[in-house]
Hints:
The chain is of the alpha+beta class. Helices cover 38% and strands 21% of the residues. α2 (31-42) crosses α3 and α5 (152-164) runs parallel beside α7 (189-201). The relative contact order is 0.11.
Amino acid sequence: MNRELLEKPFEKTFIKQRKGYNGNILDYVEGPTVIQRLNDAFDGQWTFEVVRHQILDNEIVVLGKFTADGITKMQYGASQITKSKEDNTPICIGDDMKAAATDALKKTATLLGVGLRLYRNDSPLVTNLPKPESKAAEEPEKPANGNGRLTNKQLSCIFAIAKNKGMQNKDIKALTIEQFNKQPEFLTKSEASALIKELSQK
């Protein structure tokens, strides 16, 4: 498994945009792009199957299973059922099923780091947020518990301390997944503070 390649950011030419359910513009990468990344990272030696599916009134939901190098990841995917404007009947359930399966594959791929930078807390990154250099972008909105996602300063501090300790980026990612079950970018402020303290004492 080529972890570095899996987590490599996609070039802008591969990032598409669509309107989300709430009207915001979301960034995403297409299925074939994700498949190519997986082929490159695993030399084509991987499998994907739909474990189960459910056809609802307006949506198809599937549970996908990805396997490669002894690693198994499972995630749900979904697709709206395309219906005729004339009589509101499904046009092609098969195509909608494939779209849901592709969505599941893309989501299992994010568990390996593919396109993870396009997501925040399991939701696609909203592109109409303030630009990174603005102050508003440095301080994410705080949830009700007052402990929002870590700041850019905390994230930079974590990697800087780790570098001084002779650790690589992949070591930090492995550490946060082991301790908090999440990538460094998704730590809360308190979790980041605890990690910084721990790294400083090593």
